[in-house]
Every structure is written in structure tokens, then in C-alpha cells.
Amino acid sequence: MVKLVNKDKVEECRREMAKERDYDDMSLIFTMFADSTRLKIMNALFVSELCVGDLAALLEMSSSAISHQLSSMKKAKLVRTRREGKLVYYSMADDHIKNIYKMAFEHIHE
Questions:
Q1: Would 1 be classed as within a structural domain?
Q2: Is residue 92 part of a domain?
Q3: What is the reported pTM?
Q4: Which of 33, 50, 88, 91 has the most CB atoms in a 10 Å sphere around its CB?
Q5: What would the pLDDT profile of 31-86 be if each residue is shown by its tens digit?
Q6: How far is 79 from 94, CA to CA, in rounded Å?
Q7: At residue 37, what are phi and psi to the nearest 5 degrees?
Q8: Which residues contact 105 (CB under 8 A, 6 or more apart)?
Q9: Is residue 2 assigned to a domain?
Q10: Rounded to an integer, what distance in angstroms lies between the CA atom of residue 48 and that of residue 6?
Q11: What's the CA dihedral at 95, 68, 105, 107 to 10 degrees?
């Protein structure tokens, strides 16, 4: 059995805990940051809306590899799409992810 040392602090923390689903959703976002290719894609999409072919050329990767990463990012609601004829353009869904990215980048350069 675990010995409770400070009941008030434990209760305070318990009140501030999020719902389990929130932790699952946040963990998915952080998973997106755990891959250098996705980080490169994010960086590019912070600058400009791009199609798969342009991202593939920029990152010197295959279109299928880029598409695979974009699919994961779309499921995590990090990117949005816009169709123009046969081309699909990708952009970052909002500035929240850019803020997380910037904070991580600044942190590693402290």
C-alpha cells in the first residue's frame, strides 16, 4: 500500500487533473513531434502552403513518404487541406502547433 504523505496537495493535484481522453489527445500531438520528418514538414508549412510534390522536392524524399506523414498529421488535426483541381495543398491547421514548435526550438538553444 502507498503511504499518503500530504493529503491536501494530492487532493489539489487531483482537482487539477484533466480527463483521460484529454491526455490521450495531447499524447497524439506530442507523438507528431517525435519524428524529424514531420518536424521538417511543419517548419515548411509554417512558411507556406505546399502540395505533396513541393514538400517531397524540398525535403528530398519520395511523395509517398511525404503523403504518409501528412496523413498522420491530418488525423492528429495538425494540418488542413485545400483542393485546387487535381492538387491538394497542405497548411498548418492553426498557430498552436507553431507555438509549441517555437518553444521546443528555443528550449534546445538555451
A1: no
A2: yes
A3: 0.87
A4: 50
A5: 999 999 999 999 999 999 999 999 999 999 999 999 999 999 999 999 999 999 99
A6: 8
A7: -65, -45
A8: none
A9: no
A10: 51
A11: 100
